[in-house]
Amino acid sequence: MSTHVSESESEADAATDQQDRPAAQQRRVEKKRERHEQRERASDSSETEGQTILLKVFRYDPEVEDKREPRFDDFHVPFKKGMTVLDALIYSRDHYDSSLTFRHSCRQAICGSDALFINGSQRLGCQTQIDDLDQPVRVEPLPHQEVVKDLVVDMEDFYEGMDAVEPYFQEENLPSDLEEQRQDRANREKIKMSTRCIWCGACMSSCNIAAGDNYLGPAAINKAYRFVMDEREGEAIEQQRLETIEEEQGVWRCQTQFSCTNVCPKDIPLTEHIQELKREAVKNNLKFW
Amino acid sequence: MTLHEHDVIVVGAGGAGLRAAIAAHEEGADVAMVTKLHPVRSHTGAAEGGINAALREGDSWEDHAYDTMKGSDYLGDAPAVETLCQDSPEETIQLEHWGMAFSREEDGRVSQRPFGGLSFPRTTYAGAETGHHLLHTMYEQVVKRGIQVYDEQYVMELAVTDHGDPEDRVCHGCIGYDIKTGNLNGFVANTGVVIATGGPGQLYAHTTNAVAQTGDGQAMAYRAGAPLQDMEFVQFHPTTLPSTGVLISEGVRGEGGILYNSEGERFMFEHGYANNDGELASRDVVARAEVTEVNEGRGYENDAVHLDMRHLGEERITDRLENIIHLATDFEGVDPLEEPMPVKPGQHYAMGGIETDENGATCIEGLYAAGECACVSVHGSNRLGGNALPELIVFGARAGRHAASGEPASSQIETGPSARTETSNVDAPVELGRVGADAVTDGGTLLDATPNEVVDHTLEQERERVETLMETDGINHADVRSDLQETMTENVNVFRNEAGLKQALEDIRACRERYQDVGVSDPSRTFNTDLMQTIETRNLIDQAEVLTLGALARTEFRGAHWRESHQERKDEEWLKHTMVAWNGGDPELYYTDVILEGEEKEYEPKVRSY
Ligand SMILES: Cc1cc2nc3c(=O)[nH]c(=O)nc-3n(C[C@H](O)[C@H](O)[C@H](O)COP(=O)(O)OP(=O)(O)OC[C@H]3O[C@@H](n4cnc5c(N)ncnc54)[C@H](O)[C@@H]3O)c2cc1C
Ligand code: SF4
Ligand code: FES
To answer: What ipTM was predicted for this assembly?
Structure first.
């Protein structure tokens, strides 16, 4: 035998990184468990097997005559255990209507392409089990963003918000070539959740304030948080960052409604992060007072 | 139609593309990235485990090189492998200096962990989401430098001169299709084009790769004249979820998870696949065992077996494998605390790709490639976990620098048809390559053309291609694609034999012929993903053919390539790289030498046992 590698560890072997589990994640595990039990009680979930589900999908194309008026199309999709909303959309496109348009790529909640408005809330299509939803399943583009076509929205505003907070590490004072900057474990833990953002835009879409006003939005503020809290960046830049997020379209717009936190598919405690930055900003202002 | 001119054009914005763009920018070049997905949506974000780099006392690049050579089953080229291992530490620390959120030790230094096939725990990681952090950190640097990104811009073809010999050709740019508006754009590169389009996982029905992984860059470079190398070597991962292909970490088996067949047998032991290591045998052994169980009627629905970890207890599972609970519930609808998870093997990584030298240069002047789309070759016939991410940063940076210089540089690895040492006489059951009036350059009309003329000419050709696809009232590409995936999955999977591979070539041919009749039924110019995917399907067909041809010819068992009736590695006959050149539509299979001569030592092929 020439090709035996004994691989007890591998690149996907990475599940051991949670010291203390954030509350949001805990909640999600529990919620899932509850839903599961509910379903068990209500009916054997395998009953859905062999059934067809009804998908009502928003359609719009400014260029195509009969799609200029937004409408909903019905798609009947054969259900399979494990099917997600994204799977059902792909099935509909490949079998019924190849012009059905939606962004997607990774199918595993990491590329952030397919945040959609599913049965009235912002969720990733790939991360939402059909089995967990009431039928018919209504799929719409993210609210509060301009629709380009069908389920595709214009993300430019979102990207601009991200760009506005200087979303890159800034530290000139670095050790020599082969040496890393030291970072305390606790500090890494502190920024951990904030670094998980996948730029899906769900939070922004769920936020009433972002909808009406010029507001950086939860994801961009969270990005700022990620750098402000990172001990590897120096005082001066932290100062500058706090000033940015205090500006008119910054943290003070947030009215702690928690909608962003509730929809974030990565369980980032966004509202907490925004509150914490408010406190930092206040402390910082007192310092100079 | 618009022309955009820059010094360096980087096609693709995953880890390799981002690193190339930064490097070219640091050389003072005017760089632009052209990418079908927004950079942060690239599949590099899905990598979990880590980056191999010899950073610590007691470890050395030489040891890393030795492990990599051995892992490659001696099909890696020593100059490339040694470059990877020498440059990886500095490149990894560079990421840290750019703020990447690595996991940390008590003393504040970056953490490393052990990985399969490595003699030292040198896999540097950031939680269970190393790729996500790597991708975002480098994109941040691209934003910081103000590098122009044309996102949601689908590159359809490269603009290359049409000299008879690919080694005389020059690449002057590429053609992009603006997904949002439907406009075609010409991109002119003054000094170089870097292809960094990622892997071709969509060749298979079941893969850990994203939907966007269609290997467009490989297919474009191939048609432009750069050979594809070692494409038959495909890594399959034994534990992926059946509905989506989402990867379930080896960690589950590492912690004691058990594989069962539908008769409740712990087959790895009870059927004697790996009496010592059981579930922890190497990826390819476990993958083949699972397929055997299913083929012999002992599988569950969707060709799956069961991976059970319930006996580990809720506490241990939530403590150490919590992300698995999310993956299984979110993507398979199964709560692994309550029931076993269905799993099956899935395509995971392509070792082969566009032939390049250690500078990332192809045989076409001005054309470079890096990342999973390239074959430089560091992985040979089998990639070690944690060796792809360092490849992105090491060879991404080199390709970017060389593309910016605009000068061909000397290298130890030779590229192009002149490196041929042997021609193959494999007997393909069908005609290969071009069908009918398939678009190929007329030949010889662009010999003295200016760069702009070459780009313009290609732009016109692509415009016609788009018009034809839009106007044809034909079949849906999705049908052709699923037939292609089906035959690849059936015949060019973890088990391969002559009859199956020949069958696959016939099926691929049939797909090619049917593709003549595809049409795009969405009439819109706005976000026409139907059109884009139709073009991707063509790219998949070209690659499927190359892969299968190489696999049919290679009558040995090396690394990830298993052949029935040829159950050993045959160094005398097969210690050589497979090359397939498009050759104007009449594909040619040939071989080149493997370089085992390193800087200071020769890597002696040994039996790969651990
Ligand atoms: C689930 C999973 C886990 C993994 N874990 C690890 C690990 O722990 N360690 C490790 O070393 N490796 C790992 N790998 C392998 C590694 O992640 C990949 O090989 C690597 O990320 C590929 O990066 P890339 O830059 O080459 O391509 P990608 O990240 O795939 O980027 C491709 C880019 O090209 C663009 N593109 C493609 N086609 C076109 C076109 N026609 N026009 C314009 N743009 C185009 C896309 O938009 C994208 O930006 C893993 C792979 C998977 C799937
Ligand atoms: S913060 Fe959460 S919801 Fe908002 S963009 Fe990031 S991942 Fe999406
Ligand atoms: S498809 Fe990538 S997040 Fe859903």
So the answer is: 0.94
User: Is B55 close to A178, i.e. CB distance below 8 A?
Assistant: yes
Could you tell me the residue range of the domain that residue A75 belongs to? 52-153
Tens of pLDDT along B160-218?
999 999 999 999 999 999 999 999 999 999 999 999 999 999 999 999 999 999 999 99
- Atom index in ligand 3 nearest the CA of residue A106 equals 2
Distance CA B138, CA B100 (A): 9
**Domain ranges, ordered by start, for chain B:** 2-234+349-406, 243-346, 451-566
CB B345 within 8 A of CB B172: no
Q: What proportion of chain B, given as a percentage, has pLDDT over 70?
A: 98
Contact A12 B250 (CB under 8 A): yes
Is the per-residue pLDDT at A5 higher than 50? no
Question: Secondary structure of chain A: what % helix, strand, coil (to 5)?
Answer: 45, 10, 45
A164 neighbourhood in chain B, CB within 8 Å: none
Closest ligand relative to A110 C-alpha: 3
For residue A17, being part of any structural domain is answered with no
| Together in a domain, A162 and A149 | no
Report the distance separating Cα A212 and Cα B155, nearest Å. Answer: 37
- Which DSSP helix (H) or strand (E) runs through A56? strand A52-59
Question: Are the beta carbons of A99 and B90 separated by less than 8 Å?
Answer: no
pLDDT in tens, B40-69: 999 999 998 899 999 999 999 999 999 999
User: Cis omega (within 30 of 0) on the bond before A136?
Assistant: yes
- Ligand 3 lining (C-beta closer than 6 Å): A 86, 104-107, 109-114, 124-126
B243-346 CATH: 3.90.700.10
Mutational pocket test of ligand 2: of A114, A270, A271, A273, the residue with most ligand atoms within 8 Å of the beta carbon: A270
Residue pairs spanning A and B at CB distance below 8 A? 314
List of chain A residues whose C-beta atoms are within 8 Å of the C-beta of residue B136: 195
pLDDT at A43 over 60: no
- CATH, domain range B2-234+349-406: 3.50.50.60
